[in-house]
User: Fold this.
Amino acid sequence: MKSFVDPRVGIAVPPRITNAQAAEIVSRLRAAAGISIGADKHAFIELRVGRRLRDLGIPDFAAYMQRLSGPEGAAELASLVDCLATNTTSFFRETAHYDWLENAGAPELAAAGSGRERDFVIWSAACSLGAELWSAGMVLERLSAGPLGRLRSALHGTDVSTSVLERAKAAIFSEEELTGLPEPLRKRHLLRSKAPVGGRMLYRIEPELRRRAVFAYANLMKPETAPRIEADVAFLRNVLIYFEPEGQRRAIEGVAARLRPGGYLLLGHAEALPCPIQGLTQRGPAIYRKDG
Ligand SMILES: C[S@@+](CC[C@H](N)C(=O)[O-])C[C@H]1O[C@@H](n2cnc3c(N)ncnc32)[C@H](O)[C@@H]1O
Assistant:
């Protein structure tokens, strides 16, 4: 980060954000991605966006606000979303959903033809690095080796953050990022780097599973950007908490519109439906079935 030396103390001071600049950033973020953060979160915004200033070689927030308003503004807004979105994820996070998929959801949907007459379509609608999507894909693979028989699957991961999508497409994870992934699944679905990279071993999802997966940009605030699919199971987890009630409703309705009748919507366990949504019936904790 470019910084100036405060003559009073003689040390480098990172750029500071004013109330008005923080409020403008918060407002632009909400308009672009529905993400709602308090304008009072100065330290958070300074830290996250300050890194961006450093990368761009921009000396202060005033110059950054000009960039946001200038000809590069649209592209910069995407980078701002990258900076401020929270991307925490992990394999088999909220594991009850995967148990449900394996023992109830997938058998029911397979009996109705999914994975047999047509692809069994999984959609991770705020996929971050892809751990959620790969976890579901691994469950379907495991089922394919059992009494249900071979299930053809198609895996879709979407997110508003272009930087996480790049990483999701690469499908490469560090040891820490694999926390939660059981050993037999690691053995079955991961390839290990031949040598340490940057001092640590890296792991990549094996090609067979990768071939089934497509990662793409989609903004839950703009349902028309969603992939044109009929999903059997859609994960919409740990993202609604960042939206205001109207944004939550828009996101849920947009995802539900891309579910096949009889398909399932999975929300984060801490994210109740903000209000009853027509056409969705609760079938378990954070599990909703589309009527039909
Ligand atoms: C905390 S992560 C959750 C990842 C995963 N669903 C899970 O539960 O582990 C939230 C993700 O939502 C994405 N996100 C935030 N706003 C979004 C929007 N408007 N449209 C699509 N994705 C969004 C963020 O970029 C981030 O990757």
